[in-house]
Design goal:
Oligomer: single chain
Radius of gyration: 21 Å
Strand content: 25-35%
Helix content: 25-40%
Bound molecules: flavin-adenine dinucleotide
Number of strands: 26
Strand order of the largest sheet: 5-2-1-9-21
């Protein structure tokens, strides 16, 4: 199984021979590359930079000691896995001679190529890789703030928020309604809310059989829709979905009353509300002037160099790399592409050709998953989905096939975490 998923991670990444040969790394002169953010994109980048060019001074700046992954956090919320099962740390990276500074970057001084850190330290860089993921757009929805998130969790960054939602579900009385509110595109992990609804429905079927899940959606269609809806039909009406046209778009959150108000003025009260707000790149990406009107970081598709600054590259959810979705799989692949481009840049060579792949697994039940996958290439400076490369699990897939995909999802998770954090 490890072999299948490793091939998965590497397949479609046309620059793999460059990364494995080390041909770029050996010609890189001594330089400092600072990676900001130690999630799927940043941890992968730090590890591959050091592996390909051991002479490089690779510094990872990430305030957390323990990183909790969003993939499989829905299983934690639904009580199927222990919280510790999605915890990663940086010990293996440090063991590979990567410096881990446990601070946040407060300022990127692009003119001086210096970072100002939360402990007052300053740090210069030759090249920077920004991998800071998402932040919630607290201005987007009336009434939804950081304070409100302590009552109505988003659970869209794993850790405390995951545990809060899990705790609320456990404390809820049987018969209570659970609402999941989903934003419009683009946001982190397009199928993630629907996987969450499916696994929460499974939890309810076991522990609160009179309870239901209502999804209020700001869109009229969503990723893997037919597969999810087919599965919900078999859940005794436990999951109901309201699209935007049917009044699913929430415009106001009243945390005190645990109520959501839609654009058509309907009020929805629930025992537990999971409000997933619109998102954007983190404040540091904004204040450094690396974002555009969309709130995300635009990149040059062939190198993942930021459009704003040739010394700064970006990978993962902070970027706008449509049509690639914001996923851990994409973040890991983009980080490798950016590493190859940084090494080429430092060696004064052409960056290798771009080829990327994404695969997203989603659990319909604890034992059954489905997936969507596609390959991407650059044409005329734009990332495009390769015609004919999109594959989606069949609607008439057997239980055995769904089980096989659930096994592949677990194997993928183990391999991508090993690939990023090196354990
Ligand atoms: C419920 C859910 C389920 C998901 N399931 C899947 C799945 O099955 N498959 C899949 O491929 N994807 C999945 N995803 C998506 C995946 O989690 C993200 O796409 C992925 O985490 C993006 O990685 P990243 O490195 O860009 O950002 P992150 O993982 O968020 O990492 C960013 C890091 O940057 C750090 N940081 C932020 N600001 C600063 C700063 N100023 N200074 C220093 N550090 C900073 C943060 O502390 C953080 O650790 C899921 C997401 C959710 C919410």
């Amino acid at each position: 199984m490890q072999g299948i998923s490793r091939r998965h991670l590497l397949a479609g990444l046309g620059l793999l021979p460059w990364l494995l040969s080390g041909c770029l790394g050996s010609s890189v002169k001594r330089a400092r590359v600072v990676v900001v953010g130690g999630g799927f994109a940043g941890a992968t980048a730090a590890r591959y930079l050091k592996r390909q060019a051991p002479a490089l001074d690779v510094v990872l700046i990430e305030p957390k000691q323990d990183y909790f992954t969003c993939p499989f956090s829905n299983h934690v919320i639904a009580g199927l896995q222990a919280p510790d099962s999605i915890r990663q740390d940086y010990q293996a990276l440090v063991g590979q001679d990567i410096s881990h500074i446990r601070e946040s970057v407060l300022v990127i001084d692009r003119d001086k190529r210096r970072l100002h850190l939360s402990d007052g330290q300053q740090l210069g860089y030759d090249r920077l890789l920004l991998a800071t993921g998402i932040s919630m757009n607290w201005q987007a929805v009336d009434g939804y703030s950081q304070n409100a998130a302590a009552i109505i969790p988003h659970a869209w960054q794993a850790g405390e928020q995951t545990l809060l939602l899990r705790k609320q579900l456990r404390a809820m009385e049987d018969g209570g309604l659970v609402i999941i509110s989903v934003p419009d595109n683009p946001y982190r992990c397009p199928p993630g809310p629907y996987e969450r609804a499916s696994l929460i429905a499974h939890y309810l079927s076991l522990h609160k059989p009179r309870s239901k899940v209502l999804i209020l959606d700001s869109k009229d269609n969503f990723s893997k829709q037919a597969l999810f809806q087919q599965s919900w039909q078999q859940s005794a009406g436990r999951v109901e979905w309201l699209g935007r046209a049917d009044g699913g778009h929430v415009v106001t959150v009243d945390a005190g009353r645990r109520e959501l108000i839609t654009e058509f003025g309907q009020r929805h009260k629930a025992a537990v509300i999971n409000f997933i707000p619109p998102q954007m790149a983190t404040p540091i990406a904004q204040t450094a002037g690396l974002t555009d009107r969309t709130g995300w970081v635009p990149i040059l598709a062939d190198t993942f160099q930021t459009q704003a600054d040739p010394h700064i590259y970006a990978a993962g959810d902070c970027t706008i790399a449509a049509p690639m979705p914001k996923s851990a799989y994409s973040a890991n692949a983009q980080a490798k592409l950016a590493v190859a481009a940084i090494l080429a840049d430092l060696a004064g060579r052409e960056a290798p050709p771009t080829a990327l792949r994404n695969t997203c697994y989603s659990a319909l039940t604890p034992e059954g998953s489905v997936s969507i996958a596609a390959n991407y290439e650059v044409q005329q400076q734009r990332l495009i989905e390769m015609p004919g490369s999109l594959t989606l699990s069949p609607l008439d897939g057997s239980a055995a096939l769904r089980r096989q995909e659930a096994d592949m999802a677990r194997a993928w998770y183990a391999s991508i975490c090993a690939d990023a954090w090196g354990v």
